[in-house]
Structures are given as C-alpha cells and as structure tokens.
Amino acid sequence: MYNEIHSSWKPYLVNEFEKPYFQTLEDFVASEYKNHACYPPKNEIFNAFDACPFEDVKVVILGQDPYHAFGQANGLCFSVNDGVKHPPSLVNIFKEIETDLDKAYPITGNLERWAKQGALLLNATLTVRAHEAGSHQKKGWEHFTDAVIKTVSDKKENVVFLLWGGYAKKKVKLIDGKKHKIITSGHPSPLSANRGYWFGNKCFSTTNTYLHDIGKKEIQW
C-alpha cells in the first residue's frame, strides 16, 4: 500500500507502513477485497491523501467509516460521487453551509473540491465491506489514521481541525491545541442534528475567519 499513497505523504508515514500492525492490516484488506465487495474502490482507498498533498493541508475533517452502499464511497469522508443521492449527514452539512455562509445548496456531493483547497477528508477507517457498517474497524486502520492526525499536528502549524461528534472529539488528545485551531460540534447525522447538536455551529465561517486572520486562502465550501 505504501506505493499507493501520494508521494508527499510518504516521508512522514513510511515508518507506519513498516510496522507489524500495518502488515497485518494490509493482508486483511487484500483478503477482504479479494473475497467480498468492499468500498471504496481499491484504487481510491488513499484518495484523501491523493486529493490533498501534505504541504497543502490547512483543514482536517474526520469521519469514522466509509459509506457501505454501492457507488457511494470515494475515499473522502462524507463525500459521494457525482450524481449519487446525498446521504443524510451530507445533507445536514450542506444545510449548515446554506445558513452559515448564505450559499446555495450544492448540486454535487463530491467533496473533492474541498480537498483540492487543502481539506484533508479523513475517515478513521479507510475501508468497509459492502452493506456491513463498521466491518473493517479495529483491524489497524484507526492506528494508522491516528498517526496521520498526530503527524499533521506535529509537523504543521495553524491547521483547523473540525471534530464532529463524540468519536471525532476523542482525537483531540492527538492534536496540539496551542498551535492549531480545534473546532468541535455535534455530528451532522440526523440523530445528533435533530437534537440540536449540529445546526447553528457555524464551523465553516469560523474556519474561514481563522484562515483569513492567519493570511491563508479561505475554503470555498
């Protein structure tokens, strides 16, 4: 898998790929993709890194698991391919953008446009078996993506970390809050949003205000 990740990330993650846990993970993933339908497509497992080179990262958004229905997952958290119906969490993300930034609801749910502007859209688990949510959790991916979060924290400055929901908020321990901006809120899932934990968080405008204040280009959400 080392050869499949964008070259800009390799110097920072080479040690992770060489660790025993990752060798076990690699064998597991190979077996799963050989014997079962899995998502995202194998060539898009590291799409979050390919779409956002290390030197460009200025925002990190953390998801938990790829979408597990056919044609949805494209390797970017919360994102779906062009023409795919927007899942409920993504609908709520776009609704918050509408009210927070007074922008029109986006036609496409493909968030590659965010990644190209410096948003690392990272799922904690990078693969999943079709129609089996969480099926690739606790196989090693979380160990790897924790290392990614800590690497970004250690090696960069003034990155905005958007931690949505309880699972993502636990990652705060990996981030140096003295040199980065951490924004937390409820999760955009209907369960959380309908309880009042998502809408009105203004995380998108807050992110852009911070980026503007430190002299970086704002994200066109």
What is the CA–CA distance across the termini? 31 Å
Low-confidence stretches: none
Largest sheet: 4 strands, parallel
Structural class: alpha/beta
Overall CATH class = Alpha Beta
Helical percent range?
25-40%
The global form is globular
Can you name the CATH architecture?
3-Layer(aba) Sandwich
Proportion of beta-strand residues: 5-15%
Order of strands across the biggest sheet? 3-2-5-6
| pLDDT averaged over residues | 97
- Number of H/I helices: 9
Count of spatially separate domains:
1
SSE sequence, one letter per element: HHEHEHHEEHEHEHH
3D structure, described in words:
It is a single chain. The protein has 221 residues and is α/β, with parallel strands linked by helices. The protein has one domain: 3-Layer(aba) Sandwich (Uracil-DNA Glycosylase, subunit E). 38% of the residues lie in helices and 11% in strands. The chain has helices spanning 10-18, 20-35, 47-51, 88-101, 112-115, 141-155, 165-169, 190-193, 203-213, and strands spanning 38-39, 59-63, 119-123, 128-129, 160-164, 181-185. The strands form two sheets. Strands 3-2-5-6 form a four-stranded parallel β-sheet. Strands 1-4 form a two-stranded antiparallel ribbon. Helix 1 (10-18) packs antiparallel against helix 6. The radius of gyration is 17 Å and the shape is globular. The two termini are 31 Å apart. The relative contact order is 0.16.
